Amino acid sequence: MNLSLSGRHLDITPAIREYVTSKLERISRHFDHVIDVNVILSVEKLRQSAEANVHVRGHDIFVACDDADMYAAIDGLIDKLDRRIMKHKEKDFGHRNGEPLKHLVDPS
After folding, report:
1. d(CA 85, CA 77)
2. 64-98 pLDDT, tens digit each
3. Helices marked H in the chain
4. φ, ψ for residue 41 (rounded to 5)?
5. Closest to 76 (Cα-Cα) out of 63, 85, 60
6. pTM for this prediction
């Protein structure tokens, strides 16, 4: 998983970078096929916002969250992203008989 972390009107400190990477490990535990993650953290007056664009096989998933605290915005972002990834994963697997689709089945 490639992680790109940038800030608008905000310096990305090592603590924030470590916090985001530790939270994104939760996403990779649920779904292994994450290719790219672009996270943008921004500050506008009293509003802290976090946005993520996740590229998985065949889809791009965009999630944004605003809060008064940057760490709370990151937590909300990860919660939303986790729900969207799980929804994508459920769609990727067939609903009939609980069997995966043909492109996900191991050929051996």
Report:
1. 12
2. 999 999 999 999 999 999 999 888 877 766 554 55
3. 14-30, 70-92
4. -105, 135
5. 63
6. 0.79
How is domain 2-93 classified at the architecture level of CATH? 2-Layer Sandwich (3.30)
Contact 57, 42 (CB under 8 A): no
Residue with tokens 């990727």: 92
The domain locations on the chain are: 2-93
Alpha-carbon distance of 46 to 36, in angstroms, equals 30
Which letter does DSSP use for residue 103 in this model?
G
Rounded CA-CA distance 85/12 in Å is: 25
**From CA 81, how far away is CA 83, in angstroms rounded?**
5
- Do residues 21 and 4 lie in contact, with contact meaning Cβ atoms separated by under 8 Å? no
d(CA 89, CA 83): 10
Least confident of 28-32, 56-60, 80-84: 28-32
